[in-house]
Amino acid sequence: MDNNCAYCMEGELVAQFGLKICELETSKVYLFKEQSHKGRVIVAHKKHVSEIIELTPEERAAYMEDINRVSKALHAAFHPQKVNYGAYGDTGHHLHFHLVPKYTDEYEWGGVFAMNPGEKFLSDEEYASLIEEIKKYL
Length: 138
Description:
It is built from four helices and five strands, in the order ααβββαββα. By secondary structure, the chain is of the alpha+beta class. It has a single domain (7-111), classed as HIT-like (HIT family, subunit A, 2-Layer Sandwich). Strand 2 (27-32) and strand 3 form a beta hairpin.
């Protein structure tokens, strides 16, 4: 655990960019507040590691199962044409994947997704509705 890590500490650090949806076997799932891509989430490993190579083969397989489970939920809830997966962390050294639903008739189709375009934020009710829709399929 790292006291400066948003995913370890949660609370105000995570609240700057995400809303907790749930915890799965190996991960914590957050709705990304910037919703230019409807349903965009983050799946953060529960263990404070920087790289996927720091996980045991069993931990890595279980984490990939969590990511797969969330991706299936996004497909069932929102019917994107594609989900993009991004694992970054140049400055925040905690293993996490961005799952970014992409839609052919919407924002950034055909290109790499912007990390945080800062263009679309929702009301508390709209966030709650998205979270409930995702939870239905988890």
